[in-house]
Design goal:
10 helices; alpha/beta; five-stranded parallel β-sheet; FAD/NAD(P)-binding domain; binds flavin-adenine dinucleotide; 2 domains
Length: 367
C-alpha cells in the first residue's frame, strides 16, 4: 500500500520536494500538498514588486499547477491543528487528513496586533500584502504627495521604505514622503559599514529615519511612539520582525522559545519522528537560525532526503546550516546594498547581483 506524505505549506523549504513529486510517486509514495493559495510568493523579490520592478507573476510560483502536473494532490486550505498521536491534521475547512510522514513549511507572520488598535496597515507578510500596498500608493500618488510610514527599522523595513518611495514616482505619480519608525536604532543588527550605506541610500531620497523610541500604538493612520511623539500617515506598512506560525503551540507540540516547531539536526521533531519541518516555522535545536529565506533554501535537499528516508526506513541526513551568507538589500529604483564576509557596497551593481540570483531561483522551480 502507498505511504502518504503530506507537505503542509508550499513554502520555500518545500520547493525541491514539490519538484520531485513524480519521482516520489514512482517510489510508492502518495504526495498531498496543503496551502491556502494556488501560488507561493518569493519573499526575496516582494519589495521589488512593491517598487514596480517585478509583476506578481514574476515573483510567484504556481504551486498548485506544479503539484497537480506531477500527479500529486493539492488541497487549497489551511492547517489548523496537528494531532501528532493520531497522525492527523485538521484544516480550516474542518476536514481531516491522515499522514504517514508530514513536513511543515508554514512560515511566519508579523506580530503587529499588539500595536494596531484601529485602521488598516499592510504587514510585510504575507508578501501578497505588498501588492495591495502598492495599489494604494499608486492611487493616492495620482492626486498628490503620499505620506507613507514604515514601522520597523530592519532589512524588511528598509526595503519596503525604498520601494514605496520608488512606487510613488511611477506613472507620473507625485511621489511619497516616507518615514521609517526604526525603534531604538535603524538597522541595528548589521555591521556599521552596512548600516552606513543603508542610511546613505535613504538620505539620498529624503526618507526620514525616526529613532530613539518604539511605536506604541497605531490608530487609523496616526502613529504614536512610546515617548509621546505622534505622526500621521496615509499608508502604513508594518515590518516589526516575524514569529513562527502559531499552529504548533496551538497543537501542543514541542516548540522552541519563539513558538517554532522544535526540530533536531535532521529537521525532525524529537518526539514524533514522522514530523519534519523547514523555513521560518521551525526552531532548530542545534542553534537558533535567523528567519531568512537562505536557510529555507539550504534545507530543501535535506528535507527531501529525510522525508524519503523516513518513509523507507533508511538513515537520515543531518542539516548543516553552513556559514556566512550573502545579504543584498533591494532599496528600490535599481539600487541595492551588498554585504558578504566583511565586504559592503551600495549601488546598481548590488541590485543587479540580487536580481540575477533571485531570477535564477524563480526559474529553477517553474513547472
Ligand atoms: C519583505 C521581506 C523581504 C525579505 N527578503 C529576504 C531576502 O532577500 N533574502 C532572504 O534570505 N530572506 C528574506 N526575507 C525573509 C524570508 O521572507 C523568510 O525567511 C522566508 O519567507 C521563509 O520562507 P518560508 O517558506 O519558511 O515561509 P513563507 O515564505 O512565509 O512561506 C510559508 C508558506 O506557508 C503557507 N502557509 C501559511 N500558513 C499556512 C497554514 N496554516 N496552512 C498551510 N499553509 C500555510 C503560506 O501561504 C506560504 O506559502 C524577507 C522577508 C520579508 C518580510
Amino acid at each position: 500500500m502507498d505511504k502518504h506524505l503530506v507537505l503542509v505549506g508550499a513554502g520555500h523549504a518545500h520547493m525541491t520536494a514539490m519538484a520531485q513529486i513524480s519521482a516520489l510517486q514512482t517510489q510508492g509514495i502518495k504526495v498531498t500538498v496543503i496551502g491556502p493559495s494556488s501560488h507561493h510568493y518569493y519573499s526575496g523579490m516582494g519589495p521589488g514588486m512593491l517598487g514596480g520592478t517585478y509583476s506578481a507573476a514574476d515573483i510567484s510560483f504556481p504551486v498548485q499547477q506544479m503539484v497537480e502536473a506531477q500527479g500529486g494532490i493539492f488541497i487549497k486550505d489551511r492547517l489548523e491543528a496537528i494531532d501528532a498521536g493520531k497522525r492527523s491534521l485538521t484544516l480550516s475547512s474542518g476536514n481531516t487528513i491522515a499522514y504517514d510522514v508530514a513536513s511543515f513549511n508554514i512560515g511566519s507572520h508579523v506580530p503587529d496586533a499588539e500595536v494596531l488598535k484601529a485602521g488598516e496597515v499592510f504587514s510585510v507578510k504575507p508578501i501578497e500584502n505588498l501588492q495591495a500596498g502598492r495599489q494604494r500608493i499608486l492611487a493616492l500618488a495620482e492626486k498628490g504627495m503620499v505620506d507613507v510610514g514604515v514601522v520597523g527599522g530592519g532589512p524588511a523595513g528598509l526595503e519596503v521604505a525604498g520601494n514605496s518611495w520608488a512606487c510613488g514616482r511611477e506613472r507620473g505619480g507625485k511621489g511619497c514622503r516616507v518615514r521609517i519608525y526604526a525603534g531604538k536604532h535603524f538597522m541595528a543588527r548589521v555591521p556599521v559599514k552596512v548600516r552606513k550605506r543603508c542610511i546613505q541610500v535613504m538620505a539620498g531620497r529624503n526618507i526620514e529615519i525616526i529613532e530613539g523610541s518604539y511605536v506604541a500604538e497605531i490608530n487609523t493612520g496616526e502613529v504614536r511612539l512610546a515617548d509621546g511623539r505622534t505622526f500621521q500617515d496615509q499608508v502604513l506598512f508594518t515590518a516589526v520582525g516575524v514569529r513562527p506560525n502559531p499552529a504548533f503551540t496551538r497543537s501542543g507540540l514541542e516548540t522552541g522559545p519563539d513558538g517554532g516547531l522544535l526540530v533536531n539536526t535532521y529537521l525532525q521533531s524529537p518526539k514524533y519522528p514522522e514530523i519534519f519541518g523547514g523555513g521560518d516555522c521551525i526552531y532548530f535545536a542545534d542553534q537558533p537560525l535567523a528567519k531568512v529565506g537562505v536557510y529555507a533554501v539550504r534545507q530543501n535537499p535535506v528535507l527531501l532526503a529525510n522525508l524519503q528516508a523516513q518513509l523507507s526506513g533508511q538513515p537520515l541526513t543531518p542539516f548543516d546550516p553552513g556559514g556566512d551568507y550573502l545579504l543584498i538589500f533591494n532599496c528600490g529604483n535599481g539600487e541595492g546594498v551588498f554585504h558578504k564576509s566583511g565586504v559592503a557596497f551600495r549601488g546598481r551593481l548590488a541590485f543587479w547581483i540580487k536580481d540575477y540570483i533571485d531570477r535564477a531561483f524563480m526559474r529553477r522551480f517553474q513547472p
